Amino acid sequence: MPENLDNRKRKILQAIVEEYIETSEPVSSGSLVQNEELHCSSATIRNEMAELEQIGFLEKPHTSAGRVPSEKGYRYYVDELLREDNLSRKEMEMIREMLEAKVNGLEDLARIATTTLSEITHYTTISIEPNVNNHTIVDIKFILLGTRVLMAVILTDSGIIRESIIKFDEDLTTDQVNDLTYVFKNKLVGKPLEKIEGPLEEYIMAEINTGVKVIEKIIEEINKLLESSSKAYIEGANKVVDMPEFKKIDMAKDFLNVIDAKDIIADVINTGMAKDINVYIGSESEREELKNFSIVTFNHLLDGKDIGTIGIIGPTRMDYSKVISVMKYISKKLNEDYKKGKF
Amino acid sequence: MPENLDNRKRKILQAIVEEYIETSEPVSSGSLVQNEELHCSSATIRNEMAELEQIGFLEKPHTSAGRVPSEKGYRYYVDELLREDNLSRKEMEMIREMLEAKVNGLEDLARIATTTLSEITHYTTISIEPNVNNHTIVDIKFILLGTRVLMAVILTDSGIIRESIIKFDEDLTTDQVNDLTYVFKNKLVGKPLEKIEGPLEEYIMAEINTGVKVIEKIIEEINKLLESSSKAYIEGANKVVDMPEFKKIDMAKDFLNVIDAKDIIADVINTGMAKDINVYIGSESEREELKNFSIVTFNHLLDGKDIGTIGIIGPTRMDYSKVISVMKYISKKLNEDYKKGKF
DNA sequence: TATTAGCAGTCAAATAAATAGATTGCTAAA
DNA sequence: TTTAGCAATCTATTTATTTGACTGCTAATA
């Protein structure tokens, strides 16, 4: 239930959020009088600010300081006030240039989008491989690389390819490999990429004329391939050093802990992906370690295909408008390129 | 030319380095009197310390502070004084347990060694893939994954396998792939893993009956495969947060910059690998960004095969003795396992 | 000659006190 | 409903004061 704020309160809240994002200093009634859209005195603004504080949109570090947005304040800003096309011509130009780079496969694309995002926004980005569970297997190949080394390759309808190298203690024959290929293809092609277990596992075991140990190992490896799908990569970890927040040593520590335990973020990102772009402000991510950070995720869809998620992590005083604008623009450009058949 | 220190000076230097490593506080003459090996008064120690400072082994933060080792002091300590078997029974036990974990291929092994090293020493570790340039190609395979998708797999004598997926704008036939395989095998097997260029490139181009664009793309991809060999991975970035050095915000910033630009470290590591274990103290690494850090690298050989390098980064006040002891122990254990045929 | 006790001198770090400056909340008038 | 004006509040900055830890030197000692 988005509280109904009158127009002036909206303007004041917006101005406070934006000034605070820019300066990282509590915003005073005095500095808002400058704002040409607000035709009233500082006293009036003070009254309004008091009310905005009352209903929880603002808070005061201490009595004689200006106001700072609360999480609720940021939330209202993100939901109701922010501009989603807050990009300069120059920034658009830069983004276009960076996306020009040669793209080789979808993984590469995610990498380039991540770098671009980090460079333009000056925040740390995390990219998470797509959750492949709902992709469909279109082919499986086993390739003998040596007498005891087998390579398994799985292709999906989305163009994502996964492969794994499996080593055995005993020699494998070509016949065995053909047999393996036949059965696995038969049972898995057309199915979603899911862990092999239970009845399916038993069925495969029964069908193949090869040693149990070999098959167990293959299934184990294929399952590992699926599990490893949520790896997270961090880019631009040093981007935080220039932010005033980083002066507080505790924030710095928290930040290092967070980027070291990438799974924390991966977790947040994989939970409740309602929309294309999701914003978690401070404690909204429900993780103690992240209570002083905001995360914006970008469920990076290409013509409906999930090719991974990119997240940005920064202080709650994050430039949401810029971040979201950049994400939308990158997404738009990539989809245009995609339609043109660029990758 | 390692200066010739008399026995008492050596003992004093060693005691100072070790106390400073432990406490991170400048060491006073008073606290050294406790040392049961030194049977003299604080005044005598003060005289000795003054001399050690004279010849550059110690420095003073300010007049009324204790002494701190200089880079030269650490160097002397590392070269002449440190114990290389400074491990408790418990630590050995932990290392053995961690190395027990299932190992799958050599890459996996490097990963496990890295984790172990970070956990036991409480420093941040960086692992760098082996420099494959001097490995020999034993096989090359091209596998058609779709009509326009080709997978190239290169096997080397050291067991390292690299693969890459290549997409084309035109369809490929099985015949073409066979042709490709034949020529590439012919020209590359038995050769070291080096970039394809110059005469070799021309030769391949001339031999194959397939479109120039296709071959160019393949060569480009194979070359990329070789270049990407020095990727660096960081583990335990958060380990620094508890070190007193981290209280200085500048150190924290430097550290973040360093781990973000992993190549900096990779560079240092790839330069001048004289010995199995190399120690770079502060400015010895000749990189401005690293002047407050020490790096210990561990050129991780398995029965003569280079399977990658692992590095530890920490403050110059690093527990060199512990770090080197752990590295030696891990190396010994892995080689034992290897001889037993464990992987 | 090498060692040591003793003490003055030095400096950083901790504590305390004083000041300046920013901003609010409230009151009363417009 | 808005605004001017002013006291009250609290941080941040500056300055001063105290404390305590070491050293370096000197002169006595073994």
Explain what you see:
The structure is a homodimer of 343-residue chains. Chain A is of the alpha+beta class. Chain A folds into three domains: 7-81, Arc Repressor Mutant, subunit A; 89-131 and 230-339, 2-Layer Sandwich (Beta-Lactamase); 133-227, 2-Layer Sandwich (Enolase-like, domain 1). Helices cover 46% and strands 19% of the residues of chain A. Chain A contains twelve helices and ten strands. Chain A has a five-stranded antiparallel β-sheet with strand order 7-3-10-9-8, with helices on both faces. In chain A, strands 4-5-6 form a three-stranded antiparallel β-sheet. The first copy, chain A, has a two-stranded antiparallel sheet with strand order 1-2. In chain A, strand 4 (137-146) and strand 5 (149-156) form a beta hairpin. The longest helix of chain A is centred in the C-terminal third of the chain and has 20 residues, at 320-339. Chain A is elongated, with a radius of gyration of 26 Å. Chain A starts with 6 loop residues before the first helix and ends with a helix. The A-B interface holds A 104-105, 139, 141, 143, 145-146, 149, 151, 153, 155, 161, 163, 165, 167, 221, 236-238, 240-241, 246-247, 249, 252-253, 256-257, 259-261, 343 and B 104-105, 139, 141, 143, 145-146, 149, 151, 153, 155, 161, 163, 165-167, 221, 236-238, 240-241, 246-247, 249, 252-253, 256-257, 259-261. The structure holds a DNA duplex (30 and 30 nucleotides).
